[in-house]
């Protein structure tokens, strides 16, 4: 960025757009659509599988196709947003996501369903980093940015729970196809609102040519990683293809790093991730998501298979966790972020979440929702909500405007990869523990059915012990790696990192 263009750019940065709060509402609606799609389809999957004749062996692709495309293309989506413009990328993502959702709702066979889910992932990979980077360049006052990221973080954290509730309502009272069709009016509202209210500041694009070798290596490396973990869940960790995927991942990502160090215009400038605060936020949040995704899975199984809850009742049972995330993000995180260092929000927040998970390790067949699950959910929601907001703000704070899209893509990538790892890793641990318990106790049991249920619950609690340890580790990462100063209290001119040295280094 030339020195001659800097004063003009700083002048732009010092003039906040009066439409920024309405833009936040529109961007948040779009983000909610993307986030809830990760779980809304889970509730409807049994009905869709029966209607479309999808085999048990292939049904995982309804979930995996979305995760593969989304997780592997996020870096490219972030780079496109930086290069082509965040608003252009955001609007394109909305149109594409709505179109892909229409195909899913109209699906007549499994091929059409899998294709629609992959397309949703492709356009979600454009939409998600563009949304977060738009907030980064539109909100330049420290206190305002804290509030904006608080709202955005609450939606990102609570969207999965909202998806469970909405998926149950639509499936039970309408039709499974509406879990796809519902995205069309949401995207239409967001598109009209974004056209009117979203304004991208001038002089913040990165017009460097696209790094083709880095794009291919990075995308294929992430595809191999996500596919390796999803295959491990269904085929086991010792499966030959699973192991080969992890080897291929290591080779491709090592080559990716080597290319990025040498190219003049890298897909992922290493300065984005080597900053200890941004890198620490990516790692801490990724670890927390590993635990959270696994927990959602086990609590859903527990409530429906052990307690006999309906899909709607299961979704409603998650609402206290969602409420805790909203309160933790908007009332605790956003208010304190401008007063204390982010490590003193993220570290304690993750410890509170770990205590909530620790309570859930005591799950039994007869556990009370009010006495055990409810207080655990509240602690989890408050802890994770308090963590999400500073983590998201820190992930792009102090980054050069030309890198805002790729930095935003990295926080989304850490969440997607964390989700894939968490689902596979913790599900495998739970299944192994359940099998061991059942094998040890089934012989001579008066009620083999009871032993089977006890084994499943034992598997859940064992996996939750691991999840608790992972969240505690993420708290340690936040305390050790992150050393940024307060993320608010002054106006930061985009592109002038000298104004906030404590926040960058």
TrEMBL record:
Keywords: Cell membrane, Membrane, Transmembrane, Transmembrane helix, Transport
Region forming the signal peptide: none
Subcellular location: Cell membrane
Recorded GO MF terms: transmembrane transporter activity
Membrane-crossing segments per the record: 21-41, 61-78, 90-108, 114-137, 149-170, 176-198, 210-229, 241-259, 280-303, 315-338, 345-365, 371-396, 417-443, 463-482
Membrane protein topology class: Multi-pass membrane protein
Pfam family, one: MFS_1
Principal location: membrane
SUPFAM superfamilies: MFS general substrate transporter
Highest taxon, organism lineage: Bacteria
UniProt domain Major facilitator superfamily (MFS) profile: residue ranges: 23-486
GO CC, any one term: plasma membrane
Name the record gives this protein: MFS transporter
